[in-house]
Design a protein that fits this description.
With 91 residues, the protein is α+β, with helices and mostly antiparallel strands. Helix content is 23%, strand content 37%. The chain contains two helices and five strands. Strands 1-2-3-4-5 form a five-stranded antiparallel β-sheet. It is globular, with a radius of gyration of 13 Å.
Length: 91
């Protein structure tokens, strides 16, 4: 059951390995919260290429103090999430 998004659009987060990502979009799908992230780089060319270095993560909230994200790797789920994101853009 979704309790609402913890991370907000425009916020920055560090993932494993210390890579910085910005939350581009929030997607609620099948009772779970997902975030579309874009890796932040020093390269203006990379930053302007919106298709480069994007990924989806699922927000995991265990309790009031435990929050984490899990990278989505399932190709089927990724396709569904990108389809949901496209619907948001078309609205």
């Amino acid at each position: 059951m979704s309790i609402g998004f913890i991370a907000k659009k425009g916020e920055m987060m560090l993932l494993e390995g210390g890579e910085a990502h910005m939350v581009v979009e929030q997607i609620a799908f099948e009772g779970e919260n997902y975030l579309l992230l874009k890796r932040v780089t020093d390269s203006l060319t990379d930053y302007m290429d919106l298709k480069k270095e994007v990924s989806f993560v699922r927000e995991v909230v265990e309790n009031e103090t435990d929050y984490s994200v899990e990278t989505v790797t399932s190709k089927t789920l990724l396709k569904s999430l990108f389809d949901e994101a496209k619907k948001k853009v078309q609205k």
